[in-house]
Structures
1.
Amino acid sequence: MNKKIPYKINFPKIGNPSTGYISIAEKENLPFIPERIYWTYFTPESIKRGGHAHINLEQILVAVSGTIKLKIETSEGEILDFTLDSPDIGVFVPKKSWRTLKYSHNAVQMCIASIEYDEKDYIHDYEEFKLIHK
C-alpha cells in the first residue's frame, strides 16, 4: 500500500444474495488506525462537496449507498477519478490530496479518518494547495 497515491480498497464481502452481505474493515485491510468515522447523506445532486485538502488527515471513502464520483489531485499533481457505487469498495485518500465529490440523490458516504477533526488541518484555498507541488 503506497500512502502517497490514492487507490481502491476491496473489503471482504461475506454472504449471498438470499441472505444479504456484510463487509468488514479490519486492521489488516486498512492503511491506518481509524480515529474517527462519519457519514454524509442527503447531499443534493446539484452540490459539489470537498474542494479542500488536508495537511495530515488520511481517509478512506465508501459509498454505503448510491453513487459518488470522486476526483483526487495528489500533491505531485496527478489527477485520478474514481466512481464509488458498492459498499464493499473504498478509496484511500492520502494527506495533501485535493478532493471534489459529486453525489447521487440517494448516496450515503462513510468516511474512515486517520485523525480526529481539526479545522487547522484543512487547506481550503486551491492556490495554497498548489504550492505543495513546488
2.
Amino acid sequence: MDYIDRMIATREDSDETQRQLAERIRYRQPQIARYETRINEPPIRYLIDFCNHYKVSADYILGLPSNYRKPR
C-alpha cells in the first residue's frame, strides 16, 4: 500500500466523499480526484491539511516507521 492508497483508505474509513473532504479543507473536488487517481502529485500543503483534518501523522500516511529519531 502506498501513500495515496493510505490517503484514500483514511478518507473512506471516515465515510467522507472527495467532495466533503474538499469542502472541509478548502480544496476543489477535482484537485482531490487528480491526487487520488495519481494524475497529479499532492503538494506538501495538501498532506499537512489532510493529516490535520483526519488527525493522522504524516509518517503513517507516508508509510514511515514511527521509531525514527528526531534530528538534533
3.
Amino acid sequence: MTSIQRLRRLVAGLGLLLAGGVAYALWVSRTGLAIPCPFRAITGWKCPGCGVTTLCLALLWLDLAAAWAANPVLLILLPLIALLLVRMALGYVRRGFWTPARWESALLWALVVLLLVWGVVRNLIS
C-alpha cells in the first residue's frame, strides 16, 4: 500500500470517527444520556477517564471552566496526547506502521503513570 493510500485510509477513518463523535455529542446534548463508565458502575470510584464526555462537550462549546471541572488532568495532558497521535498518524502514512522513538515511549509511559496516579488521587480528594 502506498503512502497516498494510507493517507486516504487515515482520513476516511478520521472522518468516520469525527462523524461518530458529532453524532454522540448531539445525542448526549439532546437526551442527557451518555455511556456510563463501567469501572465506576462496578466500583463506585471514578476512573482516570471519568468525565471525558463532559470534557469533550465543554471543549466543543469552548467552556474551559466546565472542561477543567470534568477532568483537569486529562485537559492538561490533551496537547501531549494529540502530539503522540499526530506522530503515530505520520508514521503510519509514511511507513505503514509507527515505531515510537525513545522519548515517545517514555512519554507514553509517563502519561500512563500520571493517569493511574490521577485515578487514585481523584478518589481520595472527592
